[in-house]
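Quarterly update from the structural biology core.
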Amino acid sequence: MNLPQQKKNWSLTSEAFERLLASFDADRDLAGKKYLLLRRKLTEFFEARGSDAPLDHADETFNRVARRITEGEQIKDLNSYFYGVARLIWLETLRSRDKELTPLELAMPPIAVNAGEVEAQKQVQEERLHCLEHCLSKLSIQNRTLIIEYYREEQGLKIEARKRQAARLETTLNGLRLRASRIRAELSQCIHSCVQSLPETRNQSPNTEY
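Predicted structure, tokenized:
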């Protein structure tokens, strides 16, 4: 998957997600419906262009627009702005693909890595995992169960699994997606704060999204 990285040291918070929803409509229920409709259309936009991760690219589009709104940018035509950001992300993805290793480079022996660097990387990953577990424990039992189950299956099995999950929760698939998005924003904010508080990772630029 080639997913361009978002601006350093910024993560989607619950407040940012609420501002994003409010930009769609003052009515919260109507805003949620518009959000889910646009998310589906953006996913189709990336699918039509051959994206290997259309849902992730759509989420990245929402994250970038949410950051702009949080920073105070006034957006007059929201849909056009979203598609402009989506096209930019796709161009970045294509440029990233062009920089991938050639078959010849892949055949070359890997460069030796200092043992100390390997150990440091392992420590960083362990600390990020600790932050994830810590933040999951702070969620309510219902929300923790929902978000873990929502992301549990592999890509090809997710759709059917989420349909079954929505049925158990007596909600629609779109309703489940909206609930998961809100929990994900809360979790992302917590993980970002936790990672930034760790001395070993304070100067890193980690991907803290769940």
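Residues 49 and 79 are 19 Å apart (CA to CA).
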